[in-house]
Amino acid sequence: MIEIKNIEKSFGESKVLKGVSTIFETGKTNLIIGQSGSGKTVLLKSLLGIHSPEVGTISFDGRIYSDLSAEDKRELRTEIGMVFQGSALFDSMTVAENVGFPLKMFTNNSKSEIQDRVDFVLKRVNLVDANGKFPAEISGGMQKRVAIARAIVNNPKYLFCDEPNSGLDPNTAILIDNLIKEITEEYNITTVINTHDMNSVMEIGEKIIFLKNGLKAWEGTKEEVFRTDNQAIVDFVYSSNLFKKVREAYLMGNK
User: Fold this and answer.
1) Residue 242 has what pLDDT?
2) Among 7, 62, 176, 190, which is least packed, fewest CB within 10 Å?
3) Is the pLDDT at 114 greater than 80, yes or no?
4) Sign of torsion, CA 234 240 243 249?
């Protein structure tokens, strides 16, 4: 579980986060949504320790990040997996080398132990024949699965995903969403996803945090999105006619 309490973050005279509080639950897919400039990227970077809020606290299973020593922060970092927006694979490394990189950085595992773990997580993300290929030789969807494999290779307690469906076609995006959800439940990870993809909201939004102008404007589940009368999130999520029709059908069927 990750708990944030009243965090505020400013850049110069601009206050980007304005007292945001919430809990990201373990074993669930927690989504952060909002328009560009709403503060969702700054919130994610604050969770990662890239930004330091001026006010408030962020705690990881009771450990307040700002109170940790440098050594404890390094230890916490080994418990975190990250899926970057553009996958961020090393072009000069093979798929297997990319996935094994965190193990070489953060563990003392032997070469054979690293290879066994790499093989295991690649099989878990359905990439059994890609070990020796380079990122340029595989599709965008496969690159994203490699990024997920790398993020979970170290058995993280916390998984952060920044726009994991960016640049993917709708069918591949659904596959990636389902994979992230399966892994979250299978390994009981606290997963936080920063997304603009409303399909993700509808499919895997077990907890949704909606930011607007640096404030938490709404939070709830994908089911509660259908029923809410909060106009801000209704306008944001149901901006397309397709989602409006989905919501209308849901409300009609649940009267």
Assistant:
1) 53
2) 62
3) yes
4) positive
Which of helix, strand or coil describes residue 218? strand
Tens digit of each residue's pLDDT (9 = 90 or more) over 153-193: 999 999 999 999 888 888 999 999 999 999 999 999 999 99
Three-state helix/strand/coil letters over 94-120: CHHHHHHHHHHHHCCCCHHHHHHHHHH
Q: For residue 87, give Cα distances in angstroms to 75, 182, 222, 243.
A: 24, 19, 26, 28
CA distances from 83 to 192, 204, 236 (A): 10, 17, 25
pLDDT at 240: 58
The average pLDDT across 213-223 equals 92
Pairing label, strands 190-194, 63-64: unpaired
Q: Name residue, tokens 């809990």.
A: 23
| β-pair partners for 212 | 215
Rounded Cα–Cα distance for residues 195 and 153 (Å): 23
What count of residues does the chain have? 255
Cβ atoms of 89 and 147 closer than 8 Å: yes
pTM of the model: 0.90
